[in-house]
C-alpha cells in the first residue's frame, strides 16, 4: 500500500483576496501493519507527533555551447530537508522513476544524499517514492514532480549561469511514533520533536549509528546550496504579506480602470414645478 499526496510549489497557493495564508501541506503517515507483532520492539508513544519538513524538486542548467539536440540541459532531482538537512535518519530508500527513454529509468538510492543527475532535452513527470525505516512505517510515500528545463520568461536567450529551479514543500507527520524512532531523532536537525512531559524517559538509548547520523545531519555545504529555495516559516510569511499587498494594489488599479471605462455617473434629473404637483 502506498500514500500519495499533492504539494505546494514555491510561490503557489498565495491568497488573492487578502485572506489568511493557507497552512503548509501535511502528510500523516499511518502506523505499520506489523505493529501488533512487534509490540516489544516498536512500542508507541501516545499523543505525540513527529514532524519532518521535506523539499523535493529539480535544478536544471542549460549547457550552452556544449548543448546538443539530445542533451541540452543537465539537471538534478532530489529530496532534502527543508533547510538542507540529511534525511537519512528517517528515509531508508528513495526510488526515482524517470521517463522510459532513459537507460534504467527506475533509479534506487539506498543512502543519502537522495539525488541523481542526468542530461536530456525534454520535460516530463518524475515519480518519487520514499521508503522509511522499519521502526517508522512499512508504507511508501509516492510523490510526483514535473521536471522543468526552461524559464517562464523566454523573452531572451537562456543563460548557462542561472538554473531553472522548481521545488515543492511538504511536512510529513508521524503520529504516535515508536520509542526507537523517537529516541533516534529527538535531537536531529531535520526533525521537529515536541517537548516531552516532565519526567518522561525513553527506555531505549540512542545507538552509536544514530549519533553519527546526527553529527552528519547538516548538509548545508551541498554544491547546489546557493540555488536551493528558502522555505522557512518567517520567509514564507513575509512573501505572503508582500503578495497580499500586490493583490490589493492590483484590485485598486482594476477598479480605477473600470471606473474610467464606465464613464462618469449620470447626472440626476433636476425636479421641475410639475414634479411637486
Automatic annotation (TrEMBL):
Compartment list: Nucleus
Pfam families according to UniProt: YEATS
GO terms for cellular component: NuA4 histone acetyltransferase complex; nucleus
UniProt xrefs under InterPro entries: YEAST_sf, YEATS, YEATS_dom
Keyword Hydrolase: no
PROSITE patterns the record matches: YEATS
Protein name from the UniProt record: Transcription initiation factor TFIID subunit 14b-like
Annotated region described as Disordered, given as residue ranges: 1-41
GO BP term, example: chromatin remodeling
Keyword annotations of the record: Nucleus, Transcription, Transcription regulation
Molecular function in Gene Ontology: histone binding
Domain YEATS: 44-188
Amino acid at each position: 500500500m502506498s500514500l500519495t499526496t499533492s504539494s505546494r510549489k514555491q510561490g503557489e497557493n498565495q491568497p488573492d483576496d487578502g485572506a489568511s495564508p493557507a497552512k503548509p501541506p501535511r502528510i500523516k503517515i499511518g502506523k505499520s501493519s506489523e505493529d501488533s507483532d512487534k509490540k516489544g520492539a516498536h512500542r508507541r508513544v501516545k499523543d505525540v507527533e513527529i514532524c519532518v519538513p521535506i523539499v523535493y524538486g529539480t535544478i536544471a542548467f542549460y549547457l550552452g555551447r556544449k548543448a546538443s539536440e539530445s542533451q541540452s540541459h543537465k539537471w538534478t532531482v532530489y529530496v532534502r530537508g527543508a533547510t538542507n538537512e540529511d534525511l537519512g535518519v528517517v528515509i531508508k530508500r528513495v526510488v526515482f522513476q524517470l521517463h522510459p527513454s532513459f537507460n534504467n529509468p527506475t533509479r534506487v538510492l539506498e543512502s543519502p544524499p537522495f539525488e541523481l543527475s542526468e542530461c536530456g532535452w525534454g520535460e516530463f513527470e518524475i515519480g518519487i517514492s520514499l521508503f522509511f525505516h522499519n521502526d517508522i512505517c512499512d508504507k511508501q510515500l509516492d510523490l510526483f514532480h514535473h521536471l522543468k528545463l526552461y524559464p517562464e520568461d523566454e523573452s531572451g536567450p537562456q543563460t548557462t549561469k542561472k538554473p531553472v529551479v522548481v521545488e515543492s514543500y511538504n511536512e510529513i507527520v508521524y503520529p504516535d511514533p515508536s520509542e526507537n524512532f523517537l529516541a533516534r531523532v529527538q535531537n536531529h536537525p531535520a526533525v521537529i520533536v515536541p517537548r516531552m512531559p516532565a519526567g518522561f524517559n525513553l527506555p531505549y538509548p540512542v545507538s552509536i549509528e544514530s549519533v553519527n547520523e546526527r553529527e552528519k545531519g547538516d548538509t548545508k555545504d551541498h554544491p547546489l546550496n546557493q540555488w536551493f529555495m528558502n522555505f522557512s516559516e518567517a520567509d514564507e510569511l513575509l512573501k505572503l504579506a508582500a503578495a497580499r499587498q500586490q493583490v490589493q494594489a492590483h484590485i485598486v488599479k482594476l477598479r480605477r480602470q473600470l471606473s474610467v471605462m464606465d464613464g462618469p455617473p449620470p447626472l440626476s434629473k433636476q425636479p421641475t414645478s410639475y414634479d411637486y404637483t
